[in-house]
Amino acid sequence: MHKQMLTPAQFASCIDHTLLRAAATARDIEQLCAEARQHGFWSVCVNGSRVDLACHLLDNSDVKVACVAGFPLGAMSGDAKRLEIEAAIDDGAHEIDVVINIGRLKDGDDKYVLRELRDLVEAADERPVKVILETCLLTREEKIRACRLAVESGAHFVKTSTGFGTGGATVEDVQLMRETVGPEFGVKASGGIRDTQTALAMIAAGATRLGTSASVTIVNGFVENKAQAG
Known about the structure:
Elements: H1 8-12, E1 15-18, H2 26-39, E2 43-46, H3 51-57, E3 64-69, H4 78-90, E4 95-99, H5 102-107, H6 110-123, E5 129-132, H7 140-153, E6 157-159, H8 171-181, E7 186-190, H9 196-205, E8 209-212, H10 215-229
Helix pairs in contact: 4-6, 6-7, 7-8
């Protein structure tokens, strides 16, 4: 949907409200989930050890729980990633954001990358899987290859960044990802999205989901802009 036609509720439902800091406490997760309920965000995105708590806090709501796996480096064994995903699903996770094996991609070892991604999609047991590319570390050609492998694997989204790398989402990367995966595949912009203008630029570039920890500020800004315009 074109950004100018979005209602505040539709805009909020594009957002994965994210808290992945190592020092995040149970109280922080409680606040995250309360904000997600209040504003109608699509999901909260948390680390594996917080999935059970988030699911409990969001019981009887429409807000989903997304969990990261192989995070943030993507360089651990495929078996380790699979175990993380299986544990997250057992704890109630609805979606999985997993980091691609960046080094293997750079090696040109597409067979390894594809085999691993297919295994991880299988482990997610039909839950949506978002493949994090960490675009700041990739060349244009590598971004294109990674997108094509994600599509071929049966995953559901490509995602720009972990938010822990040397750079986050850019309009140019989102456009390239959208062009590569086609109109129906999910594209998630994540990393460094902290204001309404940036969020809307990502949607205009082709993002169907946004990952951000500044969700409340972004949605409040969107509502204020709508009020001023109308």
